[in-house]
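Posting this for the archive.
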Amino acid sequence: MTLEKKLGNDDLSSYQITSRREILALLRGMRDSNQFVSIEVDGGQQGVVTSVLDVDPEEDVVVLDRAQDDAVHRRILECDDILFETLVDKIRILFFSGSAEECLHNDRPALRIPTPTSVIRLQRRQHYRIPTPLINPARCTMQIPMVGENRNTTVVVPLKNVSGGGIAILDEKGVLNPAIGTEYRDCRIDFPGGTLIVATLEIRNCMHVRLPNGKFANRLGCLFVDIPRPMLAAVQRYITRLEREQNAKTTGLG
């Protein structure tokens, strides 16, 4: 999967960093802050959260913590199109690697990739994803066809985050089709406070995640398809409200 396809953007050149010094500085920042980094393979069908353990400019490699799931770890080693994504100071950072190999770091198993030659740094508001509250969460109501029947059934799933470009939802029962490109029409997204938007959602990535209760679920990244301007404005207002509430909590005013 290309970054353009993942983000729904045909021109990312203005967000691309090719300066080796800047790239190394970003990677070292991830290492020093122990920043979580997500790894996606198979077009987002599989993924895991890791962190940067070391940046070695002399060997021209980056060392990351290995996946705890052996099957996912093996798939990462086999894959030639690995996407890495993280947030640094609320700025979305993405880069690819065409290979990964096993190594040891401080006598512990780890992953090693070549230092990326380019990195995408997205600071635009529509690409900034903000987590939605766990208490009184936003929810998305979707219609899915019943297998072998000429009717639909209703599925309600919670949102994990929201941006001007789309949402991430959590499918705990595994009832939604996670295939990249699948579209769900007339999805009703209820934001706390009485805001309702209706939009077509396109599945852009899927990650199998472990929940705090130990169970697994599909985390689906969804793109808004041709969302009307009034609906997009409502999304932006909700994002602004979330930012205000989170900033108030951070400063002790909320």
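The chain is about 20% helix and 45% strand. The first strand starts at residue 16 and ends at 17.
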